[in-house]
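Researcher: First entry.
Model:
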Amino acid sequence: MNYKIHITKKAEADLISAADYIEFTLLNPKAADDLIDKAEEEINKLSFSPKSHKLVEEPVLKSWGIRFILINNYMAFFKVDDELKTVFIIRFLYGKRNWTEILKNEPFSLI
């Protein structure tokens, strides 16, 4: 059975911010478009087998059921709700940021 995909407002803002940075700061609009296309493609694949992706290794985040996928230099973090058959994309962060602290210290919502 396929899972629904729900991208939270925070994750959507993260993706837009990343694309804007690539387009307007790095002056590479094609790379920005490519990132959005790749993110959409990889996130949609989660509807088939989201639990095939590993949990993060950090103990607190692992206990929260946070998983991730790599998308270019970024990481899309998500939770799986089996009862609702939904994958919640909670953040989309640059891989070299201190994402552990961001996820632990900045509250996230599943809406």
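Researcher: Second entry.
Model:
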Amino acid sequence: MNLAWPLTLGALLFSIGVYGVLARRNAVLVLMSIELMLNAVNVNLVAFSTWIRETIAIGQIFALFVITIAAAEVGIGLAIVLLIFRNRETINIDEIDLLKW
């Protein structure tokens, strides 16, 4: 298996995710961009695991852990966004100033 194609795909997905985190002002889109970056990490983990071809599928196991953490992050992140929307009636990141003095 050629390792360059999955790594290029992972780097492209991660770059799009970083751009989404830095450029977006909507909290839901920022959470989606973080999910995209985590999926890029999963692509790289699985690609390296199949390239090494060990008897233990370590890359796939780590990918399952990343998927579990991503699911928890989505649940908690969306709950926080909903609470902020109820209090401030906006999910624009620039307008959220709950922790300012």
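Model: Note on the second entry: Residues 4-89 form a domain with the Helix Hairpins fold (CATH 1.10.287.3510).
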